[in-house]
Design a protein that fits this description.
With about 230 residues, the chain is of the alpha/beta class. About 40% of the residues lie in helices and about 25% in strands. Helix 2 (about 35-40) packs parallel to helix 3.
C-alpha cells in the first residue's frame, strides 16, 4: 500500500510517516497543499492523509480539486478542528473520513486499512490513451490485437503518464514518484525506462509516443495518423 501524507507540521508529519512505515507501507510526505495536490493527482496512492490548514492550498480545496479531476483516491482528513461544521464541510467536498488531533495511532491505521479496502471495491482495471490500453492488474499493455507485459518500473511510469495525459512530468518528479525521495536513482534511470517504453510502443505499432519538452520533461502524445 502507498500512502500520501500532506501535513505542514514537520514533527507531526514525521511521526505519521513513522507510524505508517512501520506497517511496511510506502509513504510520501509533503508539507503544503499545492505540492500535495500535485502528488495526489498522480494516481499513485491508495490513501491520502490530509490536513485542513495548509500553506498555499487548504485541505478542503485539495479534496475539491481532486474530485473535480475524477480522482477517487480515498482521503482521510486529519485536523485539530473538531467542530461538526468542519467535518461536514470536508465530507461534502469529497473526503471519505475525518479524524481530529490528537489521535490514537491504532485507530488511524485501522481507518487507513478500511479506506484502502473501500478503494479496492471501485478499483479501475484499465487506463486508456489513444490506441493503448494498460491493464492495471496484469501489467499488460495492449494496442489492437498485440500486447506485451511491462516490467514494474515501466508499468509505474506509464501508469503515471496515462493517469495524467495532459501533464508534463520532469525527470525529478518521476524519480520522486516512482523511485521515492530517498532513492539513489538518477536522471539516466528515468531516461533508460522511457527508452524501454518507446521501444515497446514501436513493437505494438502504436500511434502514441512519449514526447520530450526540452528542459521540462516527458508527456504522452498522439502522432498524426496518415
Amino acid at each position: 500500500m502507498r500512502i500520501l501524507i500532506v501535513e505542514d507540521e514537520i514533527r507531526l508529519a514525521d511521526t505519521l510517516g513513522q507510524i505508517i512505515m512501520e506497517q511496511k507501507y510506502q509513504t510520501d510526505i509533503v508539507h503544503d497543499g499545492e505540492t500535495g495536490l500535485d502528488y495526489a493527482l498522480s494516481g499513485q496512492y491508495d490513501v491520502i492523509v490530509l490536513d485542513v490548514m495548509l500553506p498555499k492550498i487548504n485541505g478542503f480545496d485539495v479534496v475539491r480539486k481532486l474530485r473535480q479531476n475524477k480522482n477517487a483516491t480515498p482521503v482521510l482528513m486529519l485536523t485539530a478542528r473538531d467542530e461538526v461544521r468542519y467535518k461536514i464541510e470536508g465530507l461534502d467536498y469529497g473526503a471519505d473520513d475525518y479524524m481530529t488531533k490528537p489521535f490514537v495511532p491504532e485507530e488511524l491505521l485501522a481507518r487507513i486499512r478500511a479506506l484502502s479496502r473501500r478503494q479496492g471495491e471501485v478499483l479501475i482495471e484499465t487506463l486508456n490513451f489513444s490506441d493503448l490500453t494498460l491493464q492495471l492488474d496484469t501489467y499488460m499493455l495492449q494496442c489492437g490485437k498485440k500486447s506485451i507485459r511491462l516490467g514494474y518500473k515501466e508499468f509505474e511510469i506509464l501508469k503515471l503518464l496515462m493517469s495524467n495525459p495532459g501533464m508534463v512530468f520532469p525527470k525529478e518528479s518521476i524519480l520522486i514518484k516512482i523511485w521515492g525521495s530517498e532513492s539513489d536513482a538518477e536522471d539516466n534511470n528515468v531516461e533508460a525506462y522511457i527508452s524501454f517504453l518507446r521501444k515497446k510502443f514501436n513493437y505494438l505499432g502504436s500511434i502514441v509516443s512519449i514526447g520530450t519538452v526540452r528542459k521540462v520533461g516527458y508527456h504522452l502524445e498522439e502522432s498524426n495518423a496518415s
